[in-house]
Design goal:
Blueprint: E1 4-8, H1 14-24, E2 27-29, H2 39-46, E3 52-56, H3 59-66, E4 78-82, E5 88-93, H4 100-111, E6 114-115, H5 120-123, E7 127-133, H6 139-150, E8 158-164, H7 171-179, E9 184-187, H8 189-195, H9 203-208, H10 215-222, E10 227-235, E11 238-244
Parallel strand pairs: 1-2, 1-3, 3-4, 5-6, 7-8, 8-9
Antiparallel strand pairs: 4-5, 7-11, 10-11
InterPro entries: CbiG_hydrolase, CbiG_N, CobE/GbiG_C, CobE/GbiG_C_sf, GbiG_N_sf
Organism: Aquitalea palustris
Pfam families: CbiG_C (PF01890), CbiG_N (PF11760)
């Protein structure tokens, strides 16, 4: 029995399900092939046979499917809801303890979706790092650049790292994120280009990547209500920008 499973509710979601199944080594369920059977009962029968679920459906349908099944956040499978257009990956169950947050980021990197993380442990961390780097930079080099950029702020305050899609497989960046349990948010190059604002445009990045910069726009896209705490800082072929969330801007007047 595979560790991860994908549940579809319509045949139209099958190409997306198969794409994810190849990357996640997952089992794909197609209950619509047995129209005379109750799909929710089918789901309930196999729910606890897998440790991770990606539900390709609307969140409202997912809530109804899960009704009565969760038992404990320490033992329930991780559940991520992904709409069929792959716009949002939402950890719905066992986000922190069960790994649904990590799964949501993974699904987002595979599909271009936006991870919608709602658990307080992650959501209250105020900092987002935008990172760009030359090919082949080590995790140690990236870490030293990040620590310099944070200027005494702790890595425990960082919610996520954001980079451009061309760096999604950068070994040193992936190792740095894994070492510090930091989720990696991948921003499409078209979205970075559309952001339109980079404080210090780079001719090298424009020539080689096709955008004016990476770290600043990626951090600002990942944290849209944040403010640029540190503009692009470059060290040994690594660029880092730090954005801080504007929680204080959302107070309620008495």
């Amino acid at each position: 029995m595979s560790h991860t499973a994908i549940w579809t509710v319509r045949a139209s979601a099958l190409p997306l399900a198969q794409q994810l199944a190849r990357a996640l080594d997952a089992t794909v369920y197609q209950p619509w092939q047995q129209p005379n059977d109750n799909a929710r009962q089918q789901f309930a029968a196999v729910f606890h046979q897998h440790r991770q679920w990606v539900l390709l459906m609307a969140s409202g349908i997912a809530v109804r499917y899960l009704d009565g099944l969760p038992q404990s956040k320490l033992t329930d499978p991780a559940v991520v809801v992904l709409d069929e257009a792959a716009r949002f990956a939402i950890p719905l169950l066992s986000g922190h303890e069960g790994g649904a947050n990590v799964l949501a980021y993974h699904v987002a990197r595979l599909t271009g979706a936006t991870p919608a993380i709602t658990t307080a442990t992650e959501a209250l961390k105020p900092l987002t790092l935008g990172i760009g780097c030359r090919r082949g930079k080590s995790a140690e080099t990236i870490e030293q650049a990040v620590l310099q950029a944070l200027a005494g702020r702790s890595l425990s305050e960082v919610r996520e790292v954001a980079t451009i899609d061309l760096k999604a497989d950068e070994t040193g960046l992936l190792e740095f994120c894994a070492r510090h349990a930091l989720p990696l948010r991948v921003i499409a190059r078209a979205d970075v280009a559309a952001r339109g604002w980079t404080g210090q445009p780079s001719a090298w990045v424009q020539q080689n990547v096709g955008v004016d910069g990476v770290c600043e726009p990626c951090a600002l896209i990942a944290s849209p209500r944040g403010r640029l705490l540190l503009p692009k800082m470059a060290r040994e072929g690594v660029t880092v920008a730090v954005v801080e969330d504007g929680f204080a801007d959302f107070g309620v007047d008495g």
